[in-house]
Every structure is written in C-alpha cells, then in structure tokens.
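Researcher: Structure prediction, please.
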Amino acid sequence: MLSFDERSREYRDYTEKYLTDYYTQFHDMPQKSLFEAMEYSLLAGGKRLRPMLAFDFCRMAGGDWKAAAPFAAAIEMIHTYSLIHDDLPAMDDDNYRRGRPTNHRVFGEGMAILAGDALLTDAFSVASYAKLPKESDMSFAISVLAQCAGSLGMVGGQALDIMSEERTLTEQEVLDIQSRKTGALINAACVLGVVAAGGDEEKVRAAGMFAGALGLAFQIRDDMLDVIGTQEEMGKGVGTDSDKNTFVRLYGLEKCEALVEKYTRFALKQLNVFSDTEFMTELAESLTTRRN
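Model: Predicted structure follows.
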C-alpha cells in the first residue's frame, strides 16, 4: 500500500503529465503566444488539490483512479483560469502567484484574459474525453462542471464578492460567497471522481456533502493564512484581504481555527459510504494545519 506522500506524488505527477501532454500537441500552432501564457500558469505546479480529490474519490468509489483524469485536468484548467483572472488589476491586482510574477505581469493584460478564457473553454473539451462506465452520466458530468464553474458556482461567488466590497456582510452572506468561490470546484472534483467510477447516487451525494464542508474548511484556513502566513510560505502576496469580507474579519482567528476543525470533522463523517478512506482522511486533516 502506498503511503500518503507516495500517493500524493503519484496523483500530482500524473496530473502534470496529462496536462503537459495535452498542450504539447499545440506547440506548432500560430497562436503560440496564447499557449505560452496558458502553460505558464497551468504548469506552474501548485498543490493540485482538486485533481487529487477527483482521483481519490474515483478510487474510493471502486474505479480505476486514472479514469478520472479528463475531469481532474478540466477542473485544474478552470481553477487556473480563475487564478489568472483573479490576479488582474481589475480584480485583486496581485503581482505574484505560486512564487513568480502573475500572468498579466509577464504576458500583458490582454493575453492573460485570453489565456484564462481559453483554459475555461478547453476544459469542457478535455472533460468530454472521459470514458464513463455509464455513458448516460456524461450529460450529468458536464452539467456539474458548468454549474460549479459558472454563474451558479465559482463565478457567481466572485460576483457576490465584488458586489459586497462596500459593506460588511452577515455570516450567511460570507458563507454564500465562499461556498461558491472555493467550494464549487472542490464539489465538482469530488462528485466527478465518483461519476468516473460509476458510483451510485448515495456515493455522489456523500461526495457532495464532503466537498461542501471541506471547501469551507479550506477557505477559512486560506483566510487565516492571509493574516498569519508569509509571502515565502504562500508563494504570493499576503495581507491583501484585510479590507475584504473574510472569515477572519467576521470571526477572528481563534474561532476560525475551531471552525476549520468542525467542518473537517463533518466532512470526514461523509466518507463512511466509501472504502479505503485513509488517504482522503489524511488529506482533509492536513488542511487544518497547512501553512501554504
């Protein structure tokens, strides 16, 4: 049996290879600068948390984890597009991401916008390559991906965030924003991992419940790290959220620490319908104390 670190490395390495192989085929295309900008951010490393979730939920649901690769890659492409756009001057205006200059600082704002647009659109093409045990599940899978990425999910959460900048939010409003901004793609990863394995409705439901709680724990910890982390640890600027409606601003650090623990515990309870959950349990628990 693989250790936690060995399985993490296997999932990450497979993600890197899958994404690299996909875009290598386009290197001779006339729009070379576009692909350079896309790959600059997409292949910059990172935790690859969402692909790991997709792969391991596929495995826990009884499938060959590699069957989830098209979904895992698509979700990482959507996540990367969101980071490129978040960093733009019109959004968060950040200069560093994953330890190096942000996309628009290297390629210009116009190309950065197009790189994000292309990654989002290409993601649906990549997702369509998945070979599902139940072919009829593909329409459901594409719907999950679209809803989690679009106006009902991540983009909707970002819009709510912008709309709320001039006022202090209630607890429910902060939860609504963050469950969409961060939680939506985590939900897509977990649910689509189960779909890739041909899992039943009970497993799909449990994956969604797990994702909702884990997404909150992850975002609360992220808000905490903007206060207690360093630029070296985070690979990006810190202290940039001090005037935003974050969980830290709402609750304070001590209560946030307790909430991370609470939501992580709830998430882990949802794994009871799966088998061989040791890796996922350790992954979820590691978010409680992460420093980047």
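Model: The longest strand covers residues 96-97.
Researcher: Thanks, that helps.
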